[in-house]
Design a protein that fits this description.
- This protein has 365 residues and is α+β, with helices and mostly antiparallel strands.
- It has two domains: 244 residues, Rossmann fold, CATH 3.40.50.300; 114 residues, Nucleic acid-binding proteins (OB fold (Dihydrolipoamide Acetyltransferase, E2P), Beta Barrel).
- 27% of the residues lie in helices and 33% in strands.
- The protein is built from nine helices and 20 strands.
- The strands form four sheets. A six-stranded mixed β-sheet has the order 6-7-8-3-9-10, sandwiched between helices.
- A hairpin with a 3-residue loop joins strand 11 and strand 12.
- The longest helix is centred in the middle third of the chain and has 18 residues.
Length: 365
């Protein structure tokens, strides 16, 4: 937690990468609608969102592979908005790795160093250093075509980092890997970047990947950043209903505010009146939400609603319980504490949780 909190404090105090009011349209379609993004030196920030939300467009604008219609990009205090890609001191790892198939592993890593006319001894030393960092020393003389997907991904990372760019950009580099290898590579890349102190911006649509790797996450939707915060804050207190829905699971109940006590409101739902921290006018349509692991089964809580079980899903270390609801409501519980085993569908169960664990948002159409 200390390193993540420190990264956020540095980001507030001084930005290493500063994207200001970036806009981009393709014809009549607005892809970025004036995005601001600040990243601290040494920080790992993920751009998380569904396809078409603008995250890859923003990454390509920072890399110089695409020109913004408006806005500025500053890196380490320098305005790089009009600089070509090769003058920005930015490394990029693409989704398809973009390795040179006719070159060996070592030659791929050395490519950028040779383009910068480094001395031969410096190139050899740097290539050895980065192949060691990605655990590919024994593969130096092999063709990249003979490597697995995970090994190719590590070569691409080593090649991008060998020139020691000020900023590393990664565009869904793990998307082609199987789940187990992808999870391994996430941990390895995080370790490597922190060891080198590299500033990185990472594009992904995978919420678990973003939660695992990031110091902060920018949740994007329709060309805008909905919420930029630490993984813990985004999961526990998402700023918008979209961020809630996109990051993690949740129980969600529609309702109408029937009382306002200043810092707490009472909302009438299909399961009766429920209270939530917030300040909405009486009569407002709202969405209540709570993370499924915060709900207790047959245990004390601020609520005591009764629901009928629709389905129970055994997931090894936990059990996911889905309850019957009407309309667009969704009532779900995750628990590892069912002493009597997995209950049968149709079982009535008492559910409770604390008022402070309740999230509330304006209802969306």
């Amino acid at each position: 937690m200390g390193s993540r909190n420190g990264a956020v404090e540095r980001a507030v105090a001084q930005s290493f990468l500063d994207v200001s009011a970036a806009e981009k349209s393709f014809g009549s379609a607005t892809v970025l609608g004036g995005v601001d993004l600040q990243v601290a030196a040494g920080e790992f920030v993920s751009l998380l969102g569904p396809s078409g939300c603008g995250k890859t467009t923003l990454l390509r604008i920072v890399a110089g592979l695409l020109a913004a219609d408006r806005g500025t990009i500053r890196l380490d205090g320098e305005d790089i908005s009009s600089k070509p890609p090769h003058r920005r001191d930015v490394g990029v790892v693409f989704q398809n790795y973009a390795l040179f198939p006719h070159l060996t592993v070592a030659e791929n890593v050395a490519f950028g160093l040779k383009a910068r006319k480094r001395a031969a001894t410096d190139i050899d030393r740097t290539v050895r250093q980065f192949l060691e960092l990605v655990h590919l020393t024994d593969f130096a003389d092999r063709s990249v075509r003979a490597l697995s997907g995970g090994q190719q991904q590590r070569v691409a990372v080593a090649r991008a980092l060998a020139v020691r760019p000020k900023l590393l950009l990664l565009d869904e580099p793990f998307s082609a890997l199987d789940r187990k290898l992808r999870e391994t590579m996430q941990i390895e890349l995080r370790r490597l970047l922190r060891e080198l102190g590299t500033t990185a911006v990472f594009v992904t649509h995978d919420q678990d990947e973003a939660l695992t790797m990031s110091d902060r996450i920018a949740v994007m939707y329709r060309g805008a950043i909905e919420h930029l915060a630490t993984p813990e804050e985004i999961y526990r207190r998402p700023a918008t209903a979209f961020a809630l829905e996109f990051v993690g699971l949740s129980s969600r109940l529609a309702g109408t505010v029937v009382a306002n006590e200043g810092s707490t409101v009472t909302v009438e739902t299909a399961f009766g009146p429920l209270r939530a921290p917030g300040n909405f006018v009486t009569g407002a349509s709202v969405l209540l939400a709570v993370r499924p692991e915060r709900i207790r089964v047959n245990a004390p809580g601020d609520y005591a609603l009764v629901a009928r079980l629709r389905d129970a899903v055994f997931q090894g270390s936990k059990i996911q319980l889905h309850f019957e609801t009407d309309g667009r409501d969704q009532l779900m519980v995750e628990t590892a504490d069912l002493t009597d085993g997995v209950p049968a569908p149709g079982t009535e169960m008492k559910l409770g949780w604390a008022v402070p664990d309740t999230l509330i948002y304006p209802a969306t159409a």
